[in-house]
C-alpha cells in the first residue's frame, strides 16, 4: 500500500540515456519502443530485486525511490546497489546508432519528500520536494556509465 504524506529519509534515483535524442532522430518509432522496453524491463527487475519502488518513466528517464512504501534505514544502499546493477545491465543492450553498448547516466540524492496520489482520471503516485529536484540535477549532470551521488547520499553509505 502506498502511503500519503511526508517521509523524512528516502533516496531518489534518476537515470537516463545520455544520447537518447540522437537515437530518436536516427531510429524508427518501433525501434525506440523496443529499446526502451528492453531497458526498462531490465531496470524494473533490478528495482524489484532490491525492494525499491519505481516512481515513473518519462521518455528515457527512469525514476525510483528507496524507503517508500516500506521505510527502511538502508534506503540509500538499496538504490546504490540497484544503480550499480543498472550500469552493467544497460551495457548488455546495443545502442542502435553507435553499435556500442548503451550507457545510462544515474543521479542519487537522499532526504525528505512529500508523497501522494495525484489526479482522478489517471491517478499517479508522485513525490515532491528539493530531494527530488536535486536527484534530477544529479542525474542530468552526471557522466554516462557512472553514478553521480550527492553529499547527502554519500553520508548515508559512508
UniProtKB/TrEMBL annotation:
Q: Which Pfam families match?
A: Guanylate_cyc
A molecular function GO annotation: guanylate cyclase activity
- Which organism was this protein described from? Brugia timori
Which reaction equations make up its catalytic activity? GTP = 3',5'-cyclic GMP + diphosphate
Question: Where in the numbering of this chain does the Guanylate cyclase domain appear?
Answer: 11-139
Upper classification of the source organism reads:
Eukaryota, Metazoa, Ecdysozoa, Nematoda, Chromadorea
Q: According to the lineage, what is the superkingdom? A: Eukaryota
Q: Return the protein name.
A: Guanylate cyclase domain-containing protein
InterPro entries, per database record? A/G_cyclase, Nucleotide_cyclase
One GO CC term of this entry?
guanylate cyclase complex, soluble
UniProt keywords (A-Z) are: Lyase
Q: Does the keyword Electron transport apply?
A: no
Does 4Fe-4S count among this protein's keywords? no
Q: Name one GO biological process term.
A: response to oxygen levels
Amino acid at each position: 500500500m502506498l502511503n500519503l504524506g511526508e517521509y523524512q529519509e528516502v533516496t531518489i534515483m534518476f537515470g537516463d540515456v545520455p544520447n537518447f535524442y540522437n537515437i530518436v532522430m536516427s531510429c524508427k518509432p518501433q525501434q525506440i519502443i523496443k529499446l526502451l522496453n528492453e531497458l526498462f524491463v531490465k531496470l524494473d527487475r533490478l528495482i524489484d530485486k532490491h525492494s525499491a519502488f519505481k516512481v515513473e518513466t518519462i521518455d528515457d528517464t527512469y525514476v525510483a525511490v528507496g524507503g517508500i512504501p516500506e521505510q527502511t534505514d538502508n534506503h540509500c544502499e538499496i538504490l546504490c546497489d540497484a544503480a550499480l546493477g543498472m550500469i552493467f545491465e544497460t551495457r548488455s543492450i546495443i545502442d542502435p546508432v553507435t553499435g556500442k553498448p548503451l550507457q545510462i547516466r544515474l543521479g542519487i540524492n537522499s532526504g525528505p519528500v512529500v508523497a501522494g496520489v495525484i489526479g482522478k482520471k489517471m491517478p499517479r503516485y508522485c513525490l515532491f520536494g528539493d530531494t527530488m529536484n536535486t536527484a534530477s540535477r544529479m542525474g542530468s549532470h552526471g557522466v554516462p556509465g557512472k553514478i553521480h551521488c550527492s553529499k547527502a547520499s554519500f553520508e548515508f553509505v559512508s
